[in-house]
Amino acid sequence: MPVVDASVVVDWVAPGADCALGAVGALERLVASGDELLAPRLLMEEVANALLAGVRRGRWSGVSADEAHSLLRQLPVRLADQSSDLDRAWDLSRRYDNHPIYDLIYVALAERRQVALITADSALRRKLVALDWVIAPEDACR
């Protein structure tokens, strides 16, 4: 029952998603294994914003973004954050060089639930290298 962050979910739903990406393979394995996936409510806003940014930058069409948004709403991800996760994210942000709160909300949720956080954000993984439960998508089902 890992936590997934927006960097992974964008890779899953983005128009023209590359099936060779570790995130896509991780989703297939996690869904096939029946694992429940968790995320904070912030996930939906972050991924939707990334899809709109792709339209603004001409990376994909509005129709493609609409289809990706529909796919996002169908993913087997349970939104499971609590208000206390924001307080913990604040503490973590202060500890880790004032790293953005929105990234650390995912970390706080995973820490509270005592599960892995799967992130495609290599900078976040490097910053949190001491937390061995913050993993790359390709390491999710090993």
Count of discrete alpha- or pi-helical segments spanning 4 or more residues: 7
Order of helices and strands: EHHEHHEHHEHE
What is the domain tally? 1
CATH architecture: 3-Layer(aba) Sandwich
Described by strand count, sense and barrel closure, the largest sheet is: 3 strands, parallel
Strand content: 5-15%
What does this structure look like?
The protein is 56% helix and 8% strand. By secondary structure, it is mainly alpha-helical. The protein has a single domain, classed as Rossmann fold (3-Layer(aba) Sandwich), CATH 3.40.50.1010. It has a three-stranded parallel beta sheet with strand order 1-4-5. It has a two-stranded parallel sheet with strand order 2-3. Helix 1 crosses helix 3 and helix 3 runs antiparallel to helix 4.
What topology emerges from the helices and strands here?
Blueprint: E1 3-4, H1 6-13, H2 22-33, E2 37-39, H3 42-56, H4 62-74, E3 77-79, H5 83-95, H6 101-113, E4 117-118, H7 122-127, E5 134-135
Parallel strand pairs: 1-4, 2-3, 4-5
Helix pairs in contact: 1-3, 3-4, 5-6
